[in-house]
Write a structure and sequence with these properties.
By secondary structure, this protein is an alpha+beta fold. It folds into three domains: 195 residues, no CATH class; 158 residues; 174 residues, Heat Shock Protein 90, CATH 3.30.565.10. 56% of the residues lie in helices and 13% in strands. The strands form five sheets. Strands 2-1-7-6-5-9 form a six-stranded antiparallel beta sheet, with helices on one face. Strands 12-14-15-17-16 form a five-stranded mixed beta sheet, with helices on one face. Strands 3-4 form a two-stranded antiparallel sheet. Helix 1 packs antiparallel against helix 11 and helix 3 packs parallel to helix 5. The chain is rod-shaped, with a radius of gyration of 64 Å. The protein binds adenosine-5'-diphosphate.
Length: 624
């Protein structure tokens, strides 16, 4: 039983181990697949990162180049109010310089226009007639009156002289623009109406400015633009229109002036049209307003900025990278949504590449396919194993049923066989003196004995096989068992047999019934496979250390060559057994019994003179 159990346990243990190894193998394989996939993905990711980095550096360089190129224009726009500055940004010591922020005064009045008109109609009304050198305004108006008088007199020399005086006064006295400009414009208009001033002079006075020996006078256009914050919108428009009319009359360029005036009028104190700096002194180039402005810090606490189109720059970069075969024809550099303000170095760029997406998908689907195949293999293996277990269990059950059936049948045969034997014995006694009965009853008895032995062997085999016969070892005197063998000899020996008992004066620690069964089987075989008369069986012992050998020797036919081991198999019958009846179970039973005693049975020697079987019992508790 224990052995059967242990063989079953070891079968399941082997199965479990196999499953474990298989599971480990599958996990290992899965690990390799995962590693392969991760490597493929990492390769794509590394290439993507490198190219994104490259694109970012390109973007930084292009932005920088754009700004470096624009910087002189920004500096110039700062100095020259005629230049456009809407797309530039310039902070100087934290103060926004460009785009220009100055705007007209609020209010609907037009005080400067009023002064202008009065001067135009009658400059003398602005002068109280007293010359006071400390009052530049009075002097200026008087000079204007003088110019007017010279013009009215048509005295060319006086006109030139008084106009020169007017200019000299302008150069000598820096007057507020809202006072200076109207006098200047009124003077110029008088001049234009009544004299024929040179165009160069008018261009200098209206636009280009005049450079004297010690000073420089701005043209009226720049002068007005520099001081838009001193005028109301109405005054600004009015004065600008006056300047434009004069420019038109003398073919002096004024389109930019007109545009700047319009811009100034539009501003009306609205907040600056540029995004605020997140930090008044940024330390590195930045993109503001979601990438619409690029700013860089410069020397002297200045910050330069320009309006940029990152989208078209990225398109250019894409094209350049495609040209250098860094990107495929369908790949594209794209900007991730940029923050309101971000350092250019941290702007997120990504490369949209169908090739990489395909490579990533391929790696993923390769992995999925392999994992699926692995899963199917695992399912198959587990399925086959499960099927094997079911078949094993069914077969096992079938064998159990078969063995139960054989056992039941054999058991049922016992009683009728015993009755037949009893009746045959009675018949033998009663027909002792009937010659016609001959030896038939005796033969019946012998055949019944043979059949009974066969039935007993089948039952013993079944019980041993199914583990139902557990040896109950005890100290047994071998001589007693051998003597019983001698007594029972006639019931199993088909022919006259002699039993020679050698040195059997020893005790053995064994189950007496089982050991008797072994001895009977061996002795019976010795008679059965024997053609000599009489058949001779001898039982003797041979000491060994540790334990003892019991030797059962016969003078039979011997075992055919090469079959000395196989004869111990279940149901195996050697060539020598052709003529005799048997089941092929006797020696198998002997081996099972000896193994249950931790000993063995084997053929020690065999030949035409007979066979010697060796039973080995190890020294066990209770043996002497
Ligand atoms: P059975 O005797 O029922 O055939 P056994 O298992 O007892 O079954 O023996 C198996 C076979 O071994 C026999 O059929 C026979 O051929 C051979 N055999 C067994 N014992 C002897 C022996 N003493 N001499 C010769 N052959 C033997």
């Amino acid at each position: 039983m224990a052995k059967r159990l242990s063989s079953r346990v070891s079968l399941f243990a082997a199965l479990g181990l196999g499953l474990l190894v298989l599971a480990w193998g599958l996990v290992w394989l899965q690990g390799i697949f995962l590693e392969e996939r991760d490597e493929a993905l990492a390769e794509v990711a590394a290439r993507r990162r490198a190219l994104e980095q490259f694109a970012l550096i390109e973007l930084e360089q292009r932005l920088r180049a754009q700004l470096d190129e624009t910087k002189p224009t920004i500096d110039a726009a700062r100095e020259d109010p005629l230049l456009p500055a809407g797309q530039f940004m310039l902070y100087d010591r934290g103060e926004l310089v460009l785009p220009r922020q100055s705007h007209p005064l609020s209010g609907s009045g037009a005080p400067v226009s009023a002064v202008y008109l009065r001067l135009q109609q009658d400059p003398a009304s602005q002068w109280d007639g007293q010359v006071d050198d400390d009052e530049p305004w009075n002097v200026r108006v008087q000079l204007l009156v003088e110019l007017k008088q010279a013009l009215e007199a048509g005295d060319r020399e006086a006109i030139e002289g008084s106009f020169r005086d007017l200019l000299a006064h302008r150069a000598a006295f820096v007057m507020a623009t809202e006072r200076d400009l109207p006098t200047m414009l009124v003077g110029l208009e008088m001049l234009q109406r009544q004299a024929r001033p040179r165009r160069e002079l008018m261009a200098g006075l209206l636009r280009d400015g005049l450079t004297g020996q010690t000073s420089r006078l701005d043209g009226a256009q720049r002068q007005l633009l520099k001081r838009v914050d001193r005028f109301t919108s109405k005054d600004l428009r009015y004065l600008a229109d006056r300047i434009i009319a004069l420019c038109e009359a003398h073919s002096v360029l004024y389109s930019d002036f007109s545009a700047r005036i319009d811009e100034a009028l539009e501003r009306k104190g609205d907040p600056p049209a540029v995004p605020p700096l997140p930090d008044p002194t940024p330390r590195e180039p930045m993109l503001l307003d979601h990438g619409r402005w690029y700013v860089i810090p410069a020397r002297d606490d200045r910050v330069y900025g320009i309006e940029v189109r990152v989208g078209s720059l990225l398109e250019e970069i894409t094209a350049a990278m495609r040209e250098r075969a860094l990107l495929g024809p369908e790949d594209e550099v794209k900007g991730r949504s940029t923050a309101r303000a971000a350092a250019v170095s941290s702007v997120g760029l990504e490369i949209a590449s169908p090739t990489w997406a395909a490579a990533t998908d391929a790696a993923e689907s390769r992995y999925r396919l392999k994992a699926m195949v692995e899963g199917i293999i695992a399912l198959l293996v587990f399925g086959v194993m499960g099927l094997g277990i079911i078949i094993y269990r069914r077969r096992h059950r079938f064998l159990e049923l078969k063995s139960e059936f054989v056992s039941a049948v054999s058991h049922e045969l016992r009683t009728p066989l015993a009755s037949i034997r009893l009746m045959a014995e009675t018949l033998e006694r009663r027909t002792k003196d009937v010659p016609r009965a001959r030896d038939y009853p005796t033969r019946i008895i012998r055949d019944v004995d043979g059949l009974s032995f066969l039935v007993e062997n089948i039952l013993s085999f079944n019980r041993l096989e199914r583990g139902r016969w557990v040896p109950k070892p005890e100290t047994v005197a071998l001589s007693e068992l051998v003597e019983k063998l001698g007594r029972d000899k006639d019931s199993w020996a088909r022919r006259p047999a002699a039993l020679a008992i050698g040195d059997v004066d020893t005790t053995i620690f064994a189950d007496p019934d089982l050991l008797q069964l072994v001895l009977t089987n061996l002795a019976r075989n010795g008679c059965q496979y024997n053609e000599r008369d009489p058949a001779e069986i001898s039982v003797t012992t041979e000491p060994c250390s540790p334990g003892v050998f019991i030797l059962v020797k016969d003078n039979g036919t011997g075992i055919p060559e090469g079959q000395s081991e196989r004869i111990f198999d279940d149901f195996y019958r050697a060539g020598s057994a052709q003529k005799t009846r048997g089941s092929g179970l006797g020696l198998s039973i002997c081996r099972k019994i000896m193994e249950a005693h931790d000993g063995h049975v084997r053929v020690r020697e065999t030949g035409p003179d007979g066979t010697t079987f060796e039973l080995y019992f190890p020294a066990l508790k209770g043996t002497s």
